[in-house]
């Protein structure tokens, strides 16, 4: 299979990691993958083995990035449209991955290639987070992308009917289970001098960091054994606690080490429950007990599910995890089993199976090329 993924430009956001990992897994399976990017983009932040085709604002597709200019906005979309018109018919699948890239994919000439749209988590509300005229316009464009003639695949079943988005197939994101992996069995916390809670610091209210902090404060007030480790900081202005510390992982290896350094991870996000949330997936894969408001792949069998925006519910769940060693071992062991389908090779194969056109047509197209 030959797959092309048009993007607005390489960036550090998690969605680009997903695309790079998918491309790497497909290439490892013998497929050909190319990214098509405006040549004003920086080089990839997340390593990829895929070929990179750079397109200038006139639609000229090059194998090397030469531009020193920084056009943006509509220039990117026009460049992608022109670039796809030039090369898309050389591929079997054209994969849109953003509400803006969906438009040039849908409108471009791609010959017999199948056009698809992989819609990642939180996108349906991305431009609604900050109120501005620009974001309102982008929100309208984003909403319109869900009605384009593209095969839509979402990354969670909660998006099958979400706002104006409709889909019938989902493929979750994946993990590198050689990095995010458990190295030991859970300790019995009842005999420990210190119980380590972890969370990811985020400014956005919907991430629920404030509820994790307030739950920790209550836990520590009644039992000084509780300590808090916060990845990346990003805390409310002025918040501090003598039994807390901020750690800043520099890469995935250090992030996995952070998860393994805590006994219980709190992930009390307030929106889109059931969607993928990497802290839940990564911590569970590292053998850390997970307390969450309910994100993929947390269930009552492998995690502690708590009420939304409820500090008391989080406190109760943490105390249960800290005092009932048998249940804690059972849940963390179950999570390690439940996370196996999220390995990148399995996820990439599942998405490719979803994307495939009729095998005879694929063979015919490939032969003609």
Main features:
2 domains; seven-stranded mixed sheet; Rossmann fold; 369 residues; alpha/beta; six-stranded parallel sheet; elongated; disordered C terminus; 11 helices; single chain
Report on this structure.
By secondary structure, the protein is α/β, with parallel strands linked by helices. It has two domains: 2-174 and 344-368, 3-Layer(aba) Sandwich (Rossmann fold); 189-342, 3-Layer(aba) Sandwich (Rossmann fold). 35% of the residues lie in helices and 17% in strands. The chain has eleven helices and 15 strands. It has helices at residues 14-28, 74-87, 102-107, 133-145, 209-222, 252-261, 278-285, 311-323, 325-338, 344-355, 359-368; strands at 2-6, 32-38, 51-55, 61-62, 93-96, 114-119, 151-154, 161-162, 165-166, 195-200, 226-231, 244-247, 264-267, 289-292, 304-305. Strand 13 (264-267), helix 7 (278-285) and strand 14 (289-292) form a beta-alpha-beta unit. The longest helix is centred in the N-terminal third of the chain and has 15 residues, at 14-28. The chain is elongated, with a radius of gyration of 22 Å. Residues 357-369 have low confidence and may be disordered.
Summarize the structure.
35% of the residues lie in helices and 17% in strands. The chain is α/β, with parallel strands linked by helices and 369 residues long.
């Amino acid at each position: 299979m030959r797959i092309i993924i048009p993007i607005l430009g390489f960036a550090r956001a998690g969605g680009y990691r997903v695309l790079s990992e998918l491309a790497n897994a497909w290439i490892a399976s013998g497929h050909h993958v190319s990214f098509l990017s405006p040549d004003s983009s920086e080089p990839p932040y997340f390593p990829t083995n895929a070929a990179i085709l750079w397109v200038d604002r006139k639609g000229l597709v090059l194998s090397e990035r030469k531009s020193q200019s920084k056009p943006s906005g509509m220039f990117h979309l026009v460049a992608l449209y022109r670039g796809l018109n030039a090369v898309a018919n050389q591929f079997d699948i054209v994969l849109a991955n953003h509400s803006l890239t969906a438009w040039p994919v849908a409108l471009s000439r791609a010959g017999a290639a199948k056009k698809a749209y992989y819609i990642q988590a939180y996108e349906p509300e991305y431009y609604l987070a900050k109120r501005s005229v620009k974001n309102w316009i982008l929100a309208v464009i984003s909403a319109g992308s869900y009605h384009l003639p593209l095969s839509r695949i979402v990354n969670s079943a909660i998006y099958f009917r979400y706002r104006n988005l409709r889909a019938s197939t989902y493929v979750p994101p994946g993990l590198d289970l050689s990095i995010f992996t458990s190295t030991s069995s859970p300790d019995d916390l009842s005999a420990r001098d210190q119980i380590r809670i972890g969370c990811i610091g985020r400014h956005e209210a919907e991430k629920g960091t404030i509820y994790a902090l307030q739950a920790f404060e209550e836990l520590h007030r009644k039992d000084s054994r509780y300590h808090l480790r916060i990845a990346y900081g990003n805390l409310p202005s002025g918040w501090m606690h003598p039994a807390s510390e901020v750690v800043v992982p520099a890469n995935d290896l250090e992030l996995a080490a952070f998860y393994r350094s805590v006994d219980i991870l709190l992930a009390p996000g307030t929106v889109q429950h059931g969607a993928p949330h990497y802290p839940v997936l990564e911590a569970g894969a590292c053998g850390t007990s997970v307390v969450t408001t309910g994100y993929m792949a947390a269930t009552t069998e492998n995690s502690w599910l708590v009420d939304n925006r409820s500090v008391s519910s989080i406190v109760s769940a943490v105390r249960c995890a800290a005092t009932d060693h048998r249940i804690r071992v059972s849940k963390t062991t179950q999570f390690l089993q439940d996370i196996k389908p999220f390995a990148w090779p399995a996820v990439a194969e599942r998405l490719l199976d979803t994307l495939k056109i009729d095998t005879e047509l694929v063979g015919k197209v490939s032969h003609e090329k």
